[in-house]
Amino acid sequence: MDNPHLYRELTEIFREVFDDDTLTLTPETTAADIDGWDSMAHIGLIVAIEERMGVKFNSAELESLHNVGQLAGVLEYKLESRQVKA
Amino acid sequence: MRLAETQEPHSAASTFQQLANTRMDFVRAGRLDKAVQRYRSAHGNLPGLPVVRLALLGSSTLGHLHAGVRVGALRHGVLVDVYENAFGMYRQEAADVSSGLHAFRPDVVCLALDAHHVAASGGEGRAEQVLADLRELWRAVKEMLGCVVVQQTVLPVHWPVMGNQESRLPQSPASVVESVNRLLRSEAEAQGVYLLTVDTWAAIDGLSRWFEPALWNRSKQEVHPRVSDLYGEQVGRILAALRGKSSKCLVLDLDNTLWGGVIGDDGMEGIVLGQGSAVGEAHVALQRYALQLSERGIILAVCSKNDEANALAPFADHLEMVLRRKHIACFVANWQDKATNLRYIAETLNIGLDSLVFVDDNPAERALVRRELPMVAVPELPEDPSGYVGTLAAAGYFEALEVTAEDRARAELYRSNAERENLRRSTTDMGGFLQALQMELTWSPFDSIGLKRIVQLMNKTNQFNLTTRRYTEAEVAAMLDDPSVLTLQLRLSDVYGDNGVIALLVGRLADSATLDMETWLMSCRVLGRNVEEATLNVLVEQARAMGCTRIVGTYRPTAKNGMVRDHYQRLGFAALGQQEDATRWELWLDSYASRDVPMTIKGGKTWTTHTCTAS
C-alpha cells in the first residue's frame, strides 16, 4: 500500500469491472476474495487496466500475477519506467 | 444508472436508452448492461423495446461481446437475449435438435467465425470449401430453427507471406480469408443471409485495435474487448433494422449546412459552394451523400429559417448545387421554430417523428430539437463541414437490410405524396379531391416475388397495424400454399404515381365458416382515402369465396397503434369483447353490402376486373 494513488485508481477500475461500489483492495486481495473474479472476468480486468492506464502487460508478466500487490508492483514499475523514458 | 433502476418501466426504458446513447468505453458498457439485466430480471421487459433472441455462434471465445451487443442494440431500441454455444460446438448444436441452441429458439443466428477456424493453414480450394460448408449450414439453420441468419465476415488477421502480391498465392491463409470475404459479399443476398462486415469496420478503425495476437493466445478472443462496444453497435444496427427501426428521412438545414454562408445575406454569388474552396467542396460532399441516400430510398426534406424564395433560389439556379428541388420531398423554409416545422414535415410525409434525422450546423437549433422532440435523431456535427458526411455515415441511422425496387422508387413516391398533400390542403371538397386522384387499388394473394417486401412491411409497420404481429420470411413463405390462410397484398396508384404495396392482410380459418384476421396493416401514406373500406370489400368477397359467413378481427394495443383502436368499429364490425389485452370484433357476411369507394378495384389471380361505383 505504499502507493495510495495507484491503489485509488485500481480500486476505481475494479469497482466498475465488478460492478460493486463498496469493493476495497489490499495487496493480499486475490481472485478468491472478489465475487465474479473468474478467468473470463480476469481478462476483462487486465484489458480495462491496460486501456484506462495506458500500459501493456506481456504474457510472462500476466502469468506471474497472483494477488493485487503483485499487480500493483508490475504497474508501478511500468508507470515509472514510462516517466523515465518521457 | 442507479436512478434508472428505481424508476417505473417507461422512464427506466428511456433513461437506459439515453445512457446507451452516451459515449462510453467497454467497462462502462458492461456496467450499464448489468444494470439493465438486473432491472429486467426484477421488473420484466421494458415497454416499447422489443426483445430479440440472438444466438451468437462461433468456434472461439465470444462471451466478452455479449454486453456490447446488448448495449448496442439498446441504443437502437431493441433488447437482446444472447445465447452462446458450448465452446467450439456450433455445428453439433445446429444439427442436434435437443441442443441448448434449439431449446433457446433464436430469432437470429449470428455466425461469428474466427479467421483461425476458417483458414489457419490455408490450402488449395479452401475458400470455396468454406463457402460450400457455410451454404449448407445456413440452409440447415434456416430450415431447422426458422430464423434469420447473420454471417460475420472474417477478420484478416493472418500475415501475408508474399506481401503486396499476396493474391498470386491463393492458397495462403491471408488470401483464403480475402477470398472468403469476397465470396460472402457476392453470395449473401442470393442466399438470403445478412452480413456483419467486421473486416470493413476493423479496416476503418485499425486492425490492431480489433485483434491482438497475445490476447488470442491467452484467451481465444479474436475481437478485442476494447472494441466490443463497436462490435455491439454494428450487431445492434442489424437487429434494429430487422425490427424496422431504421430512420427513413434526412432533414437538412440550408445555410452553413448545405452551403457555406447565409443565402438571405450573401446572395447567390456570396454563398460558398463547389470547387475552388475547401469549405465549398465539403458542402458539395454532403449534398452528394444526401443524393446517394435518396437514390437508395431515404426521403430528403429541407427545414430552414429563410424566406422561401431565397431558400429555393440556389436549388433552381446555382450551378454547383448537386441537390435540386425535385430531390426534396418536403421543402419548408419559414420563420417558425424548427420543432414545429419538423412536426409538419413528419405529418406531411406521413411518417413518425422517430424516423427523422435532423442535420443542422447550428448547436442551438440542435439543442432545441433534442429538447422538444427527443425521438428525432440529431447528430452532433463537428465544426468543420469536412466532417459532416463522416459523422452522419458513422452514426448508422439509415442501416438497411435490403434494397428493393420500391426502396429505389420511394423518394419519388414520397415527393408525389407531398404534392398530393398540398392538393388536399388547397381543396376543401374532400370527395372532389379523392375523385381527382383517380385511384386504382390492385389486390392479389401474397406471392414469392413480393416476399421480401411483404416481410419488410410486416416487420416495420407500427401505426396502422391492428395486431403488430411480426413474421419471419419462413413463416410468410409457409402461408403461400396454405389453403386455410387468406392473404392479400394491395397496391394503390393514382395520378401522381404508384404508391406500391400499401396494405397487407392475413386471415386464418378458425372454423369452416369463420375467418380470423391475424394481421391487417396499412401504410399511413394512404390514410384518409377510403382504402380501408375498399379493402374490406375485397376481403369480404374473398372470405365468401372461401365459404366463410363471418370475419373476426382483433385489435391489440401497442404504444404506437392507437390510431386504429376503432378501426373495426368504423368498418361496421360488432364488439365481441375483451380477450386479454386485445379487443375482438365480428362481421356477419350475409348482411354485408359493398361500400361505395372512390377508386377502381382490380385484382385476383385471374386479374378479373370490376369497378366499384365511385361515390
UniProtKB/TrEMBL annotation, chain A:
Pfam families, per database record: PP-binding
Domain Carrier: 1-79
Record-linked InterPro entries: ACP-like_sf, PP-bd_ACP
Name the UniProt record assigns to this protein: Acyl carrier protein
